[in-house]
Amino acid sequence: MAEIPFTILDEGRATEVPARIDIGRVRLSAGSLERALGWELKPQGLCHGEVCIPSAGRAGLLSDGQVDLAAFAELLQRPLALDVDERAAAVGASARERAELLGGGVAPDFTLPDLMGREWTLSGLRGKKVLLIAYASW
Questions:
Q1: In whole angstroms, how far apart are CA 124 and each of 62, 67, 95, 133?
Q2: Of residues 2, 33, 41, the one with CA closest to residue 15
């Protein structure tokens, strides 16, 4: 099974890494996992800085020294949007991380165009009153 280029979106950042596709499952080497998502595979488990989550005995997480992307996202309770045919995946923030952001009363940063096509970033308007109108066609 050969490695192919695969794009992983995390926290608004796209990283292309080599991956193996095995019956609809995406498998990443330890180096690819660290480069794309910041998690390092250590003897004590998956670690991000000082935080480590034991990985021993987690069914389907590790196979032949590679990490299954879906099992990794499930372990961290992070939503995963995976499109194997397009060779891309987006890993979302966990419910705990989203709750912490919302609990702080600060909206997550984003950039959107106005009706004239000018782009506005929410963080550039901090300290000002902002009226945000959302519309959906469905």
A1: 42, 38, 26, 17
A2: 33
Beta bridge partners of residue 8, listed in sequence order: 15, 89
Per-residue model confidence (pLDDT) at position 90: 93
Average pLDDT by consecutive 10-residue portion of the chain (138 residues)? 89 90 89 92 87 81 87 90 92 80 75 89 88 80
DSSP character at residue 128: S
Question: 3-state DSSP call for residue 37?
Answer: helix
Return the H-helix or E-strand segment holding 67. Answer: strand 66-68
> Do residues 72 and 46 lie in contact, with contact meaning Cβ atoms separated by under 8 Å?
yes
d(CA 7, CA 81): 12
Rounded-to-10 torsion of CA 11, 13, 18, 22? 40
| Tokens linked to 123 | 């963080």
Are 2 and 20 in contact by the 8 Å Cβ rule? The answer is yes
Token code pair at residue 39: 């998690």
| Residue partners of 12: CB distance under 8 A and separation at least 6 | none
Q: Are 38 and 44 in contact (CB under 8 A)?
A: no
